[in-house]
Design goal:
This protein is of the alpha+beta class and about 140 residues long. It has helices spanning about 45-50, 80-90, 100, 115-125; strands at about 1-5, 10-15, 30, 30-35, 35-40, 55, 60-65, 75, 95, 130, 135-140. It has one domain. The chain is built from four helices and eleven strands. The strands form four sheets. A four-stranded antiparallel sheet has the order 1-2-11-5, with no helix packed on it. Strands 6-7-8 form a three-stranded antiparallel sheet.
């Protein structure tokens, strides 16, 4: 089971479990009550907007915080991407691992041997939240 606490506009707890989400009932964490937000596949742009920092907004676009400083400009125009950057800032990944495979950590020109690449990829997979098995809670 993976778990990650995020301090965004609200405190969130992201949990990936090995059991069926249908049979899981979590009501508290570290003796603190939890409020169910959604399952991973149901996480939408509208839900993300309630948790990530809105930096600026005009009539055309909204700008959300880049928590991982990888956007190149300090913001994203997509609140889900901003949320994902918060997860990545903690050394975890959200959804598919392919974004990791093409990042500079596994650049084919770095000289990693195949065994090193496999170890790095295995570590990344162990730190990737599978959306189908993930639940998001607010810690009030």
């Amino acid at each position: 089971m993976k778990q990650l606490e995020l301090e965004l506009q609200k405190r969130l707890l992201v949990i990936e479990i090995d059991e069926s989400l249908e049979t899981l009932h979590i009501h508290s964490w570290n003796n603190q009550p939890l409020e169910f937000i959604c399952k991973g596949p149901d996480f939408t742009e509208d839900i993300a907007k309630g948790f990530v920092l809105l930096i600026n907004e005009n009539s055309h676009l909204s700008y959300y915080a880049d928590y991982n400083n990888k956007s190149g400009c300090g913001y994203y125009t997509n609140s889900i991407r901003s949320f994902i950057s918060a997860i990545e800032s903690k050394g975890y990944y959200w959804g598919e691992i392919k974004s990791f495979c093409y990042s500079e950590e596994i650049d084919p020109f770095t000289g990693y041997s195949e065994n090193n690449k496999k170890e790095v990829l295995k570590e990344a997979q162990s730190r990737t939240f599978n959306l189908e098995k993930t639940i998001i809670f607010e810690i009030p």
